[in-house]
Structures are given as structure tokens and as C-alpha cells.
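In practice, a research group might receive sequence data for several interacting partners and want a quick structural hypothesis before committing to experiments. The following worked case mirrors that situation: the sequences arrive first, and a predicted assembly follows.
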Amino acid sequence: MTLLALTGIRKSFGAVDVLHGVDLSVAAGEVVGLVGDNGAGKSTLMKTITGIYRADAGTIAFDGRDILQLDPGQRRELGIEMIYQDLSLAKQQDVSSNIFLGREPTRKLFGVIPGIVDKAAMDRQATKMIERLGAHLPSINRAVGSFSGGQQQTVAIARALTFNPKLVIMDEPTAALAVREVQSVLDLIRRLKSEGIAVILISHRLNDVLSVTDRIVVLRHGRADADLVTANTNMNEVVSRIVGGGDQSAAARHEQRG
Amino acid sequence: MNTQTAKPGIWAQAQRASVERLHIRLESFVVLLVLCAVMAVLSPFFLSVSNFLNILLATSTIGVLAIAATFVIGSGGLDLSLGSVMGLAGVVGAFVAVNLEAPSLVGLVACVVAGAIAGYINGQLITRAFVPAFIVTLGMLGLARGFALVISGGRVIYGLPPLMVYVGQGRPFGIPTPVIILLLTAIVAHCVLAYTRFGRHTLALGDSENAARAAGIRIERHRRTIYTLSGALAGLAGMVFMARINSGDPTAGINYELTAITAAIIGGTNLFGGRGSILGAMIGALIMGVLQNGLNLLAVQSYYQQMAIGAVLILAVFIDQYQVRKESRV
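A structural hypothesis for the assembly, expressed as C-alpha cells:
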């Protein structure tokens, strides 16, 4: 079943055309790797899915529903979450404030005045979520900016998973992590898949992409240039599709070394 | 993750509890107490009930403006037009009541509405025309002040009806009305900032615009609301001040934005947004009130008082930034 379907997505910033008609589909529970050279338009494409950017042309359907006109908040409500490369955390706020930002549960004060944020419930659920991820944080009531990079990423992941998403987009989730943390992110992706959650993984680390994805889509010059089934492809092919012809074997050797 | 192996001392624990529970820096409270103690020693008049009410009266205007400053600065913005808008609001209210002979209530409401309109214009220019808040509100500082002088013909408007004067000079239960207005405004503002989604989104927006946008908060609309709110609060301050001095003075509130912003920063508002508390701003406003009152009692020339306020502002930002650098690894 197709969960997300993009057709003919175009986006330009002034005179710079970034996306020239991208087609992409993701099935429920499918893990799709999105690779491409710097400036291929990966992040721009993902931001048109989350609604941060509005596509100039094309259609986006999610769960059989046209979502092109929806704003980021409405798209999140439908179940699209993204973990940004910069994590997009509010660093002076504490853990639960970040996890529940924009979706704070409210209660009535003295049973009369509505709209009071239920911080206790937020803290409880945040603690539960962090535990479920098997992570350790010094204190849930401390500003997120005082945590280490890996701890901050845990918060960003917890934020993406707390509201039962159907699709999680991860932009370079392993780029800044130590080896052991990388493994736990890859394990997490496998777990999401087993729970029926679709994942789009953007990464420069092709070994990671090859090890967890079902399909690999190569973005090149603003188009989906190749759509490879991971089981039937290899490092060489992926690299050659990224760089687009030329001396492919040399590039592949370089990638494997690097 | 044993980052906390060393047990923090009592002072550090109290500091953290104060920041986490009350959203204020403990230091500001200590400064207020020390300042009061020093003034009490230096002047025999300081510790009298009438002087205490004097301080609260003087703080009532600055306090309302400090609430506005806390919201705006907490959201990552800036409103330099607070003092001018306050002056404009007072003149508009007096003009409506005296020159147009409208009912008192209309005159009072006109103050707040005039302020809200000025704030709304600020918000529109900042979020739709993409002129930086610093420039827009600096421009409004001139615009509002000029407009107040145009309406009043450069003269103070006298002759307010009794009900309007009561708002500034009345004493229900022995407490001056302006103090009651400040207290109610502060309680409501505190609850809004600390316990509602609107307040939390305000601080998140000031913390990281990207995070707020990604979370689905409509940040442009939110900013417009905050500037309108700030203007309305400046209007309320203008109303109180007008009623207190029993006239619409086009030069009212000159430099008040300086004092209000200082009070907000002393109260723990991060100059670059993301952190702020109304309780803290009230303590900040009291510190400014006590400072001015004390310098008055000691017969220090008002020129030096201006210098003192400016110096305190810079010092407060310095201390805050020093703390931020020490605590975070942003």
C-alpha cells in the first residue's frame, strides 16, 4: 500500500531551480534511502514533504489524501515526522517541552479555566518515551542545550516518535554520532519498520543506507535519477548513479575507503 | 552518564530550583533585598509605609511595560516603542474624554486600543514587510511620539472626568488603583506565559525559530499577536499614567522603554529570546523602582539617575550572558 506519493515536485528559490519534477513513493513500513551529491536537493525535497517549503508544482498524497495545501502542523497531525540534521530543538527549554512543542496536552485549572498546559503529564510521557528508547539523560527538567550531541538527538528522536507517526524522515541521523550510537540509530530504524512505520533515510554513509533500507532512491540534479532495490544493488552501482557516469570504479573505491 | 558526580552546593541547588520552578534567577531577588537594605540604612524615610506605596506607584507603570518587554524579548523580538506608545495612549485617552467629551469608560478603552493599534502596525511591518524589529519599533518610537504631539498640539490635555482620575488616584481598600491593576495584569500575564500553549510557544519561538516552525507553530501570526499584545500593554500603562497625573501628557514615558527592558532583563529574560518570566520582570521592575526612589530620597540629580539606569541595563545583560555561556554548550 502506498503511503506517500510525490509526483512532479518542482521547487525553485528565485532563479535557482532545485527540484525539477521529482517522483517518489514510499509504502507503509518501507525503509527508503535517499542519496545524492551535495546540492542534489535532498533536504529541499524532504522539507516540501513536511510542509516547511511549499512545492511550486506537483502533487503530494499521504495516506490517499492530497496534503499539498496543509501547513507543517497539520501534516504532523497526519503522521509525518522529521528529524532534522540540526535537530531543530529549542535549546533553552527542557526535554518534555521540546517533545510536546506545538502539541501540548492541556487541562482545566480548578476545573474551570481551560487551556492550562499539563506539564506533569508531559514529563511523565517524556520519561516513558526516553526509557523506551533505552537512553539515559541526566535530568528531564534541564535545558536541552546542556546535553551532549547524542543526548540531544535522543530528544529529537523521542519527539518524532511520541505521537505515533506513520512516516519518519531522518536527515543525516548518523553524521555526528559515535560508532555505538550509529548502531542504535540503525537498530531503531529496523524496529520502526517492524512496527509498520515507514522511514525515509537521508545519509551520506552508504554502508548504513545499504544495511537498513529496502529501496534506494538517487537524487541527481533535482530529479529522482534512479530507484534501486537494495537487495539487488551494491555500493558500486549506487555510487555510480550518484556521480552519474564517468570513472565509476574509481569513485566507488574512493567511497569504500572513505 | 555520570555528569553529576560532584554534589552541587546548597546555593547551586537553590539556584537551579529557582530557575526550574519559578523561572527566575535567585540573584535578582538577592539584589532587591540588598538594595532595600542599603537604602534603609542610607535614608530614614525609606522604610515608611507611604514611601513603600510611592515605590509601588512608581513601579506600576514600569511594571506593566516590563511585562510587555518580557513577552516581546522572550519571543526573540524587541519593542523600543513602549515608552512612546504609552505616551500616545495617554494623549489619545485624554483627547477622547476631554476634547470629544466621550464617556470615561470610552476614554479608558481608547488608551488600550490606541496602544494595540500601534503594536499591530509594528507586527505587520515586522512579519509581512520583513523590516527588522529593531528598525520598525525604533521608527514607531518616533512616529508615536510625534503623533501624540500632533494630537495634543504639543500641550498637556487637562480636565479628565472623575472616573478616569479614580483609575490613577483611587484607593480601594487603601491600595492605590494602579498597584491593583499591575498586580492583576502580572498574575494573568504570568499564567499565560508559564502555563498556556501561547506562552510556551512564545518562548520556544524566541529560542529557535526553526524548531517552532518545524513543530507546526504559525510563527508569523504568533509574532503579530505578541507585538499587538505589547502595544496593548503599553496602552494600559499609558492609561494608568494618564490617570495618575490627571492629564494627557504628550511627553509621558520618554525613555521608559529603557527602564522596562532593563527590568525584564534583570528578571531573567534572555535578551535573545527563549527565556523569560513575569515574576522575574516584577522583581526587576521593583529593583528599578527602589533604585529610582532611593536616589530621589538621597537627592541625587535626575541626570545621574539616567546614567544609573543605563549602567544597570548593561550590567544585567553582561551577568546574564556570562551565566548563559557558563551553563550551556550551544
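Before designing any experiment, note the following. The two ends of chain A are 37 Å apart (CA to CA). Residues 93-163 of chain A form one domain.
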